[in-house]
């Protein structure tokens, strides 16, 4: 949260911290659960999906538990500051949300199925918060890598809004934007696979209890 303000707001470019040309840490080479490289190289034909759904500790675990996911990486995305540090992101002065990069085999799990994991495991109607976690860094977000991902994400959002509305929930506030021009910065090593290293650690995510209707959210439908 930006200090001195009661309601979280995204910083302007003038307000945002400048960051640094390089990260101040070395990323671990491999995923502690899946055993695959965190930062690549990734197998040919695999695809990347980026999601923000509150605290990235619990979000990352949801995706590494999904069959067909090859590796996951906790990080920061959608902001202004270059190579931000965790404390800077939490100040609200970088503009980033906590995000999870998901590398997956589309022959095993579809992007639509990953969207189902995304929608059902957080509340996408809460704006700059997720449960008791309040701040711009907890906003719901989807950053798409291809036109097909964008179309599928938009269709799924529309389909999920219908069932949320029918269940008495509010309007989806999820940020849906292209990943191009919005770099994904890996988080510090201690954040990577945090809940594998700390099984009793804080999770902080939870869904609305409303199922996402896979099958009616196909691109072009």
UniProtKB/TrEMBL annotation:
Entry keyword annotation includes Iron: no
Gene: msrA
Broadest EC class assigned to this enzyme: oxidoreductase
Protein name: Peptide methionine sulfoxide reductase MsrA
Gene3D superfamilies: Peptide methionine sulphoxide reductase MsrA (3.30.1060.10)
Domain Peptide methionine sulphoxide reductase MsrA: residue ranges: 50-203
InterPro entries: Met_Sox_Rdtase_MsrA_dom, Met_Sox_Rdtase_MsrA_sf, MsrA_MetSO_reductase
Superkingdom field: Bacteria
Organism: Streptomyces violascens
Phylogenetic classification of the source organism: Bacteria, Bacillati, Actinomycetota, Actinomycetes, Kitasatosporales
Region (Disordered): 1-23
EC number: 1.8.4.11
Keyword match Oxidoreductase: yes
Family: Belongs to the MsrA Met sulfoxide reductase family.
Chemical reaction(s) catalysed: L-methionyl-[protein] + [thioredoxin]-disulfide + H2O = L-methionyl-(S)-S-oxide-[protein] + [thioredoxin]-dithiol; [thioredoxin]-disulfide + L-methionine + H2O = L-methionine (S)-S-oxide + [thioredoxin]-dithiol
Protein task: Has an important function as a repair enzyme for proteins that have been inactivated by oxidation. Catalyzes the reversible oxidation-reduction of methionine sulfoxide in proteins to methionine.
Entry keyword set: Oxidoreductase
Active site: 55
């Amino acid at each position: 949260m930006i200090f001195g303000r009661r309601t979280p707001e995204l910083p302007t470019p003038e307000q945002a911290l400048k960051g640094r040309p390089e990260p101040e840490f070395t990323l671990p080479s491999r995923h502690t659960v899946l055993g695959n490289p965190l930062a690549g190289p990734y197998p040919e034909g695999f695809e990347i999906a980026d999601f923000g759904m509150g605290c990235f500790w619990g979000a990352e675990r949801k995706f590494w538990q999904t069959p067909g996911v090859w590796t996951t990486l906790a990080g920061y995305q959608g902001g202004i500051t270059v190579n931000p540090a965790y404390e800077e992101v939490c100040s609200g002065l970088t503009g980033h949300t906590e995000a999870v990069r998901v590398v997956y085999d589309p022959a095993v799990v579809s992007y639509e199925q990953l969207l189902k994991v995304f929608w059902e495991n957080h509340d996408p109607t809460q704006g700059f918060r997720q449960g008791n976690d309040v701040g711009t860094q907890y906003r719901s977000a989807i950053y798409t890598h291809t036109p097909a991902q964008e179309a599928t994400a938009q269709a799924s959002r529309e389909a999920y809004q219908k069932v949320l509305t029918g269940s008495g929930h509010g309007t989806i506030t999820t940020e849906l934007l292209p990943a191009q021009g919005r770099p994904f910065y890996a988080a510090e090593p201690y954040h990577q696979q945090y809940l594998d290293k700390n099984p009793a650690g804080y999770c902080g995510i939870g869904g609305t209890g409303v199922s996402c209707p896979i099958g009616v959210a196909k691109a072009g439908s």
